[in-house]
Amino acid sequence: MNKPIATALATIGLAQFLKIPYKKITDGNWDWGLFFETGGMPSSHSAGVSSLATYIALQRGVKTVDFALATVFGLLVMYDAQGIRRQSGELTIKVNQLEEQIERFRGEEDHHYHDKKTKRLREQLGHQPIEVVGGALLGMLSGYISYKLFEV
Fold it and tell me: Pick from 1, 3, 33, 48: most CB atoms within 10 A?
């Protein structure tokens, strides 16, 4: 069994699960569907790649090609999560509001049809920078604990 991959996958699952109690603490709502959603605190993308890079650093050392690859890959994933994917999410919010704005521009009365739509585009695609940092810290901790459990 590849322990670094198992560590990264388990960390991704843990991060996805932690989004549920975090949402309860911040908003007061239990939302079990968050386990299958992208975005939110902590970033499971950041947690997964950080745990992998941490495990590799501890197992192989920071001067290895393995660590270099994991680190560069991880930085690209984290940049994408908080940059491009977040911008896509913000654009999606605007698209979802477009119908309401068109009614207003036409001077029509707001019939709230758009409020009742069941199929809206997913708006939370990416992460705020703090969510990426939270995921990275969780990943480093998880990678360290996993390494100590498996390798000692």
Answer: 48
How far are the Cα atoms of 3, 32, 36, 44, 58 from residue 9, in angstroms, in the given order? 10, 19, 14, 10, 18
Sorted by where each begins, the domain ranges of the chain are: 3-83+129-151, 85-125
CA distance 126 to 85: 4
Structure tokens at 107: 């001077």
pLDDT of residue 65: 97
Q: How many CB atoms lie within 10 A of CB 94?
A: 10
Average pLDDT (90-112) is 69
Could you count the other beta carbons within 10 Å of the beta carbon of residue 88?
14
Task: Tell me the pTM.
Answer: 0.73
CA distances from 98 to 73, 89, 94, 114, 133 (A): 36, 14, 6, 9, 32
Burial grade of 123 (CB within 10 A; 0-12, 13-18, 19 or more): middle
